[in-house]
Design brief:
Elements (H helix, E strand, L loop, with lengths): L2 H8 L12 H7 L16 E7 L2 E6 L4 E4 L7 E2 L9 E6 L5 E5 L3 E5 L7 E4 L8 E6 L5 E5 L4 E4 L7 E2 L12 E6 L5 E5 L3 E5 L7 E4 L6 E6 L5 E5 L4 E4 L7 E2 L8 E6 L5 E5 L3 E5 L7 E4 L6 E6 L4 E6 L2 E6 L2 H7 L3 E4 L7
Antiparallel strand pairs: 1-2, 2-3, 3-4, 5-6, 6-7, 7-8, 9-10, 10-11, 11-12, 13-14, 14-15, 15-16, 17-18, 18-19, 19-20, 21-22, 22-23, 23-24, 24-28, 25-26, 26-27
Length: 344
Amino acid sequence: MSLAAMCAAALTFTAVGPRSAVAQDEAASSEIEYAVPSDLAAQSLLLDATYAGERLVAVGEFGHVVLSDDRGATWHQAKEVPTQATLTGVTFVSKDLGFAVGHDATVLRTTDGGETWNLVYNDSESEMAFMTVYFENDRRGFAMGAFSFMVETNDGGDTWEERSLSEGLLDDYHLNKLFSDKDGDLYIAAEFGVVYHSADQGRTFNRIQTQYEGSFWGGFGMADGSVMVFGMRGNAFRSYDKGATWTKVNTGTDKSIAGGVQLGNGKIVLVGLQGYVGYSDNGGKSFTEVTRADRLGYAAVTDGPDGQIAVFGEPGVKLMSDNMEKAREEVGAKITAQVSDDNS
């Protein structure tokens, strides 16, 4: 399934009846299907990736979890993953403790750096999809996704409780990406140009309506304290004041953007559909589009081996130079828009 189709499918689930806050107990008593070992796991659809210490961990369709101990140069599959659901998000609290989420309201936990996982929450009857996961520390965290479905744990994932974003907030927008800024404030990239902001570590959220009316698919915090959200038709917006105001970013594209990161060297990279990879050398004020020749969709990007980035999507993981000119030459891509100067 293409990345675009996967995004559409993930965001069109329909609730069927009430959801139990103790769905993890039901999961323990049901028959569990495990991800099938495959030599091609790192070459199949991957939707999110993050570092667990020095290890790179990526997740995707069929319950695939793949691991790299050389920053993306080589990969091996996790030994034991008790789901075949598509996994959409992953985060690590430490080099050993991590959580992954996905379709069928699935939450997985690992305590050995991603080699083996346990199913700690699952509610397949709800037909809900978790799209994002975040942990404040090794005890408290959230999983959320379609139709504002959200669960919280305060005991490291042993038990989970369904909750709303805030008391009296009845929105049912898809919650696509939960992330923090430099100060620890939380933000959720959502539908209809909505961003949710929390200044109290997710205990309450405030809805912010940006000047954009389309869906935001992702976002991240940057080293200077600002945050960026991005989504459909190349739209990206940046806030320097905790979401009070937003400035449109020149992404150099009209392709939908699904992932982004600030690299260790300070450069900022965005990825998206139709082979879009956007490079910024001016702190994210504007981007140069490098279109990959494969024209496939990409959902996440991380630091890779020295001088490279790892991009994740329809073909699994691919390595590219972190320099846009070299990337154009190495992957058969073309630069389709030049970075504007700072005053534009």
